[in-house]
Amino acid sequence: MKKLRIGWFTFTCCEDSTILFTELLNTHYKEWLSHLEFVHARILRKDDTQEIQQMDVAFVEGAISSDEQENKLKKIREKATTLVAIGSCAVTGSPSAQRNYFNESQKEEIRQVLEKFKYKEKVLKLADIVTVDASIPGCPMNETMFLEIMEKFLHARQ
Amino acid sequence: MHDSNFDLGDITKGTYAIKLDEISKIEGAASLDIQITQGKVTNLKFSISEWKRFYTQAIQGKPATVVPTLVSRICGTCSNAHLLASIKAVENAYQITPSDQTMLLRKLLYHGLIIRDHALHLYIFALPDVFKKNSILDFDMENPVEHEFLDDAFAVKEVGNQLSIVVGGRSVHAPTPVVGGFMKLPSVNDLKKLIPVLVGIRPKIVKLIDLFAKTPFFHEVQAPFVFTSLVSTDFSYLQGTIHTSKGQIIEEKSMGDHLKAVVIPYSHARGFNFDGDLMMVGAIARLILGAQYLHPKTKETSAAYLKLFPTKNLFYNNLAQAIEILHSIDQSIELIENLKEISPEAPIKPQPKESVGVGLIEAPRGSLYYKLDIDQKGLVIKGEIVVPTGQNQVIMERAIREIVEDLLTKNAMKEKIIYEVEKFIRAFDPCMSCASHFLKVNWS
């Protein structure tokens, strides 16, 4: 059976779902290592590929703060058969999108930083930019739902 | 993504650029740009490229008692450090003294964090460098040594994970610890069940300590700098006074007077120094300043390795973390063995008042400082957070420069420079999510 080609990507967030994923590896690595090919996963390996590779599933964590991130997300979407939004920031934007709701004086405090590093005016959730095929909400992601969807992907392989 | 921008035309003349866009196997996003001109480093910038989430602004106007739940989202891996440091700041502001039972449970929660967070760093991030592999996932199942380390990695992490789950309800963003105590208490039985698994991973860590002690990674920082750490008499990471390698002893509430912000214009995060000196925090600083307070069993087992400290070889941060895992195992076993019962204590109810609270604890990567200004209704007027990676950022960049300059005198090739520098950054164990929660910067 062909290995499932997966990518794990992180945008603006605290990476809690990445951490939870590495904790799930504690009890699932034997099964997953033989069935999964980690095409992109910065937390686990150095990536020498210059471009984003074709993947069966892209797991994407975090919200989108910049045009740079938006473009990368679009590339991931092009190369992924299925795109799964992982965790609260990817699914709803928050809490990373908290600056969208700042009052005027708070906005003024952060204005220089936003301008200097070319932040987007608003922090966006993934679905504001690309089609999201499935979502695992939660802060961190709901572990049970993640395991269920992983099971589904592994069974659907040809 | 890794982009090594080769320019073969110039490389023979010793003029080229190294650009690492997203350094792998660290927590979060960081980048490094090095310009080498005629065999000399002419520019070197280590920058944190995480996009800020502005937590210090976001907590303004929020009740101080809900701040811990919010700031725990600053960092996925050390969320429980942010939780406990901010709880301590609020308790100090409201003059709440947590019960002995609460402190015991916090210590256990924290030892769980140290075990799983250091294990993540040592096995998943640093170990592949020792074995010259790209990833722990590439370890050869047919090779008994590599296979065993792969199994150890996940076994050790899981025990830390379970300890945090039993005590805090979850290992990431633990829901039960609150200002004044615990919302829900663990059962003695569930804790006792952890003793055999803690005992079970002990030999694995002894092996890991030996490995990192014998690994010949070496760089002694030439620039003068000071180690600082909170030192507690039971090496609990949570209590005590701040010690420095210059012999100073400082109360936690005064630490803010010594930490001076350094603006790094190209980085999304800011750096710090200690009274003008370069500083380093983390496991290596804790062992140099407080090794006498390690658990007696840990001291006995690691006696030969403890002789390697004090040191300025910052690669020994890996070794120091491995010794701390052993200490957290030994200390947890003792705390749980001595535990007779858990009393049904409700959290102490906070009485809001106008006040300032400072809370400093040792996060896995070093001192984590919280200062909260609270109004008479108990709402946060202003918050200040200084994370370990901010304190280490300046010396980290300085040390990278030293390493690159040294390698250039030995005519090292570009690939070798990249390998050595990444290995060194990983030994520092920076945490970019923490570093970019972010405060105000003055661009001038």
> Could you say which overall geometry of chain B the principal axes of the C-alpha atoms support?
globular
Q: How many strand elements of chain A?
A: 7
Largest sheet of chain A: 5 strands, parallel
CATH class of chain B: Mainly Alpha
Shape of chain A: elongated
Written as H for each helix and E for each strand, in order along the chain, the element string of chain B is: HEEEHHHHHEEHHEEEHEEEHHHHEEEHHH
Helix and strand string of chain A, N-terminal first? EHEEEHEHHEEH
Beta-strand content estimate of chain A: 15-25%
Give the CATH class of chain A.
Answer: Alpha Beta
The strands making up the biggest β-sheet of chain A line up spatially as 2-1-3-5-7
Number of strands of chain B: 14
Poorly predicted sequence stretches spanning 5 or more consecutive residues of chain A: none
Distance between the termini of chain A: 6 Å
Name given to the CATH homologous superfamily of chain B:
Cytochrome-c3 Hydrogenase, chain B
User: Biggest sheet of chain B: strands side by side, in what order?
Assistant: 8-7-6-11
Largest sheet of chain B: 4 strands, mixed
